[in-house]
Amino acid sequence: MTFETWAAFAAATAVLLVIPGPTILLVISYALGQGWRTAFPMAVGVALGDFTAMTLSMLGVGALLATSATIFTALKWIGAAYLIYLGIKLFRAGGSLNAEPRKDATSAWKMLGHAWLVTALNPKGITFFVAFLPQFLDPKADFWTQMLIFEATFIGLAFANALGYALIASRARSVVSNPRAIGLFNKAGGTLLVGAGIATVAMRSGSH
């Protein structure tokens, strides 16, 4: 794997992670209701959940790669279109986060397990990984090495992202409840996602 490929994957992952989804809304809900103590167990749960979903997705993608190069190429095109779709959907989203504070007393282990379940069992997450990962895989390189590098990178960034969201939500609650700030955030994230999808299409076209 070249450094450029890894850097592109890390940059795209960072953009995608900061976009609030079901997992981040759960993290914010706990942080709003119970403060900064939720940050570490929630971040660990998110990281473990992403590890579970990403491993299942990578094994599926690896099976497709071993079965048919044509199917694998088609998956890359579908993945690029999916990124553009997500970007447009996010750009058109409103300026609110549906995260109600969870004030019921919950142990750290229960928070960790809840975050793991929501992250790992989210079918949209697995669909996303199947569409996203092939953009960066080199069919000619060793699959298991690439899998290890991509998973370690994604999980590390996912942990940092969840931890950051929890700390911000517990300390600066006005930020996560500001419709204008969330609206601008969604538009910026949507634009970056569409750009990533278009860049992927351009790379695919340039390689043929």
From TrEMBL:
Subcellular localization: Cell membrane
Entry-linked InterPro entries: LeuE-type
Location, primary (coarse class): membrane
Pfam families cross-referenced by the UniProt entry: LysE (PF01810)
The organism's place on the tree of life at top rank: Bacteria
Its membrane topology: Multi-pass membrane protein
Bilayer-crossing regions: 6-32, 44-65, 71-91, 112-137, 143-169, 181-203
Keyword list, A-Z: Cell membrane, Membrane, Transmembrane, Transmembrane helix
UniProt KW S-adenosyl-L-methionine keyword: no
Identification of the protein by name: LysE family translocator
Organism in which the protein naturally occurs: Bosea rubneri
